[in-house]
Amino acid sequence: MMVANPKIEEKFVDEDELLRLGSDAMVEVVDGEIVEMHPVGGVHHFIGGNIHDPMKAFALKHNLGFVFMDGLLFHLFRQGKRLKGSRVPDVSFIRRDRIPKNWDIEKPFPGAPTLAVEVMSPDDDSEDVLKKVREYLAAGTEEAWVVYPKQREVHQFRYDDTRIATYKNDEDVIVSVALPGFTMQLKEVFALPSFE
After folding, report:
1. How many helices (H) and strands (E) would you count in the chain?
2. Which contacts of 173-180 are long-range, i.e. CB under 8 A and separated by 24 or more positions?
3. d(Cα 158, Cα 141) in Å, to the nearest integer?
4. Is-contact 88 74, C-beta < 8 A?
């Protein structure tokens, strides 16, 4: 006689519980559980800023939408107030037509970014970051970049293409599909200040 497997109950986090942690809490919701994010170093922020600043200027100049630095929480998978997955990209872009008219900007964004950028830190696990990218794309993100500072590479994922574009030479130009017309030379991504 076969014994039926017990039903595995899906985990969820209540949105109110998450918000009670306060705006200083650096957390994500992964598979229905609150997970604390690790602090990052200066290289991470310099590279994130190198991407954020020109991307923001371009989006504003062409009235395309809004670009955010690390910190904005995106509710990727939810059922009412029950959260299954919420993520914080290092840089994100939301196209203007994807912003709900009733979005309370004091709260996390109710959906996926149009474009998400993840900058790898020394303690990041590549499988965890790949899972995050897959979650973005499954939730409706059109394009995701994973930036590797040590290797000086950028890997570009698109929801409509199974191939991954890899940029690894300083003269390579990253061409965004989610932010039409926006390009960046790879050496601009990895430019770091000198403190001498």
Report:
1. 4, 13
2. 174/145, 176/115, 176/143, 177/142, 177/143, 178/93, 178/95, 178/114, 178/115, 178/141, 178/142, 178/143, 179/55, 179/58, 179/59, 179/64, 179/93, 179/95, 179/114, 179/115, 179/143, 180/64
3. 8
4. yes
Instruction: Say which residues have a Cβ less than 8 Å from residue 34's Cβ, sequence separation at least 6.
Output: 13, 18, 21, 27, 28
**CA 170 to CA 190: how far, in whole Å?**
9
| Domains in the chain with CATH codes | 38-72+89-189 (3.90.1570.10)
What's the sign of the alpha-carbon dihedral 95, 12, 127, 52?
positive
In angstroms, the CA 128 to CA 66 distance is: 26
Q: Is the pLDDT of residue 83 over 90?
A: no
Q: Is the dihedral of CA 88, 91, 97, 102 positive or negative?
A: positive
Structure confidence at residue 48 (pLDDT): 96
**Residue 37 φ then ψ, to 5°:** -90, 145
Cα torsion at 69, 163, 30, 64 (round to 10°)?
Answer: 30
For 106-149, the pLDDT digits (tens) are 999 999 999 999 999 988 889 999 999 999 999 999 999 999 99
Place of tokens 């998450």: 18
Rounded (10°) CA dihedral 99, 102, 105, 111: -50
130: enclosing H helix or E strand: helix 126-139
